[in-house]
Amino acid sequence: xxxxxSVNHSRNVLAFTAIALIVLAHCVAxxxxxxxxxxxxxxxxxxxxxxxxxxxxxxxxVPFGLFLLGSRLLKDDYTNSEDVLSYYKRPFLKxxxxxEIWIILNGTFNAVFYWGAPHTxxxxxxxxxxLDRPENMPQAWILYARLILMLAVPFLSxxxxxxxxxxxxxxxxxxxLTSMVLPYVSQFGLIFAGSENALSTVLPLSASGGYLAIYxxxxxxxxxxxxxxxxxxxxxxxxxxxGFVPNVLTQTQAVSRGRLFQLHVSxxxxxxxxxxxxxLIGRCASRPVMERAFASLSRVYLGVLFCHxxxxxxxxxxxxxxxxIYPVRLAILFPATLVxxxxxxxxxxxxxxxxxxxxxxx
Length: 362
Fold this sequence. Notes:
Elements: H1 5-31, H2 45-58, H3 61-73, H4 81-113, H5 121-128, H6 140-151, H7 153-162, H8 169-192, H9 210-223, H10 233-256, H11 268-284, H12 291-299, H13 301-319, H14 326-349, H15 353-359
Helix pairs in contact: 1-2, 1-3, 1-11, 1-12, 1-13, 1-14, 2-10, 3-9, 3-11, 4-6, 4-13, 10-11, 13-14, 14-15
């Protein structure tokens, strides 16, 4: 059964929004590289507030991408062993091959044009075998997350097809508590109460997918089961603010204490704001506007995710040599990286079979 044009258009707009936010997050991290407590010593509060506001929006890019991935992959039926094997031979294997190729291309780029890493074939081999994370490839962990989640697709698909969200609420809540709430509360207690006792569970949950699976499965229920269809815009806006505002305040207050509260995709506050924003944007984009343009931009989403780090490295290195203030650097770096990523992705798409391999396209 073919879905309405408005639904497909909403997904295309959300896909563009997701990749734009991911690129923005990486650009902000390059321009404002605060990574630990030492790096924020003497930082201007307004500068940090500006950075925090940008990242609080930009970090929703990964949840959006995971929502869309779950919506796209979990809707397919896997009724027998042949269906499962066919899936692993096509979408999963294509993505795995593309990730490996881009790890090699990224390493080659670094060795020739950038900081000279990896230095040896052994280091490159460790990256290809997923034993080391590639340098200057900030999107690598997102690609790893896609692969891990794609491994579980046939089995998760059967679960979401057979059961309502209400039936799966207990394991969903348990995963939310252990992989999102407890780590967040632990970090909050460490910074604001000086508590060194981290809250964690001794249960062996590392193989469950944790917060990644939560976003993945939630995307299917939001998009296909329409679990939020009865939520009015006012309530969704309130949920967004309940996640977004405390997220920003927590980070700014931590800096006033000389500590850095690390924003992470596993934050339950980010989950709240992302769910609400995803539904709100989807509703706003239900009327097809620039339909063909967004369809084209959505088609090469994964290509931009693969290649944008190359332009991020090039342009940020050039901007570091200038005397431009940080907001101006960001205003140049973000659109330059995003547009260049799209241009390269569209050029790769023109390469026929080679392009399909590089973009993990069908």
